[in-house]
Specification:
This protein has 8 helices and 14 strands. The protein is of the alpha+beta class. About 50% of the residues are buried. The strands form 2 sheets. A 7-stranded antiparallel sheet has the order 1-2-3-7-6-5-4, with helices on both faces. Strands 8-9-10-14-13-12-11 form a 7-stranded antiparallel sheet, with helices on one face. A hairpin with a 5-residue loop joins β11 and β12. The chain is globular, with a radius of gyration of 22 Å.
Length: about 425
């Protein structure tokens, strides 16, 4: 996609999650989105690893943030991080001269196979939303959209790993994926997947992401249609092979584009070391705690998650596999009033809301049960868990109801074991 993409393991799943990352539990969407913008650590992310989209209910966000209501098409995800202002950028004593959008278009056209070009669009490196380039290329076998984005990420950071690791097939089905380290230390991911994780249309999305040892991030996306969405496919596959994608994304010219992006102001160091929100809860600790709280009759057949705040397991009681997802996060007190407006407050001050409803409005029969809790205190410590009657995002139902009952979900969410992660 050229510049926008909304995606994640809860964002597309439990609304596309439990990333499209409730009144009775149907809280005000504006408040929830606002909550996602608060607490600097809960930044927007752009994951190709989506969670189930199109859920007619609540959405847990697998990358941290507020519980979001689904709106519009939850499969939209920023495949390019070109517009990201959240990533810290290294300082430079003398910034290179800006690279214009016309230069980006010319460079892309020169690197692509021979063909006809149309619908060209680009932003230069000095644009406030960051550089990107997009066009439609026809090599004689069908018109195809191709887009590129550019940004900086911190080398070795969770974001850098996320961009270059193959996604979890529980949430993002794909045909092929390769992640490797190049001789110069750069990380490269080549992914052959689909525009929509549920594959409701035949549009394929093939992409390449490069993160260099210096933190330069270059991404290429191509489709087998002249538009990312809303256009019929014109060919069986996108035009560039995996090897051609690799050659395109690793071209030296793109690193210069990233270098020319103005650096962001460095954060103030005046605050005391102890100021700010608590550190994000490690995903491995969430997984261990969740597994330890599951009823003994359940077999854990798969588990996974993110580096922080989100985890999932697939369990089976002998009557079919069931996906269980959980977020554990701090700093959600600013949206508590609306998240739990129609819920209950327990004697110890814990706020709680529950929801039972449709799990995926594009897959008949999928249901989702959730229990959302927030402990008393100024840290806004929230534990929200959900269970489905299928085993993977967009999968067909494997059973009539989730493997965990509402009482069991409530017991897990309210367990004192979570307090050890505060």
């Amino acid at each position: 996609m050229s510049e926008s993409q909304d995606r994640n393991p809860f964002e597309e799943r439990l609304a596309a999650a439990l990333r499209d990352t409730g009144g009775v539990f149907r809280a005000d969407p504006a408040a929830l989105v606002a909550g996602g913008k608060s607490r600097g650590r809960r930044t927007r992310t752009r994951r190709r690893a989506g969670v189930l989209g199109g859920v007619a209910g609540v959405a847990l966000v697998g990358v941290g943030g507020a519980l979001l209501m689904p709106s519009g098409d939850p499969s939209r995800t920023e495949r390019s991080t070109a517009a990201s202002g959240a990533t810290a950028r290294p300082s430079a004593s003398a910034a290179p001269a800006p690279v214009s959008g016309d230069t980006l278009l010319k460079s892309l056209e020169e690197l692509l196979p021979k063909g006809e070009f149309s619908e060209e669009d680009a932003r230069g490196s000095d644009h406030r939303l960051g550089p990107y380039v997009h066009l439609v290329h026809d090599d004689g076998d069908g018109a195809a959209a191709i887009g590129m984005g550019f940004d900086r990420v911190e080398p070795g950071s969770p974001q850098a790993r996320e961009l270059t690791q193959c996604p979890d097939e529980t949430f993002t089905p794909y045909d092929d994926c390769e992640s490797s380290r190049l001789p110069d230390g750069s990380l490269l991911r080549l992914l052959q997947g689909y525009e929509y994780p549920d594959r409701r249309v035949d549009t394929k999305l093939w992409s390449a992401d490069l993160v260099t040892a210096e933190g330069q991030h270059v991404t290429v996306s191509e489709w087998n249609a002249p538009a990312q969405k809303g256009a019929p496919t014109t060919r069986e596959d996108p035009p560039l092979s995996t090897e051609e994608l690799k050659e395109l994304v690793t071209a030296d010219v793109w690193r210069a584009v990233v270098d020319a992006v103005p650096t962001a102001p460095q954060p103030s160091k005046s605050a005391s070391p102890g100021a700010g929100p608590p550190p994000a809860v490690p995903g491995k600790d969430i997984t261990e705690t969740l597994v330890g709280l599951l009823p003994g009759k359940l077999d854990v057949v798969k588990k996974g998650g993110q580096e922080s705040e989100y985890s999932y397991v697939v369990v089976d009681d002998g009557r079919g596999a069931s996906l269980v997802q959980i977020n554990v996060q701090h700093g959600m007190d600013d949206v508590a009033g609306r998240l739990y407006a129609s819920g209950e407050t327990l004697p110890d001050g814990t706020r709680l809301a529950t929801h039972q409803g449709i799990g995926d409005d594009r897959v008949p029969g999928v249901v989702m049960w959730t229990v959302d809790t927030m402990r008393p205190g100024s840290d806004g410590f929230r534990v929200v868990i959900g269970a489905f009657n299928n085993a993977a995002a967009h999968g067909e139902p494997t059973r009539d109801t989730p493997a965990l009952t509402m009482d069991q979900l409530r017991e897990i969410a309210l367990s004192k074991e979570w307090d050890k992660l505060r």
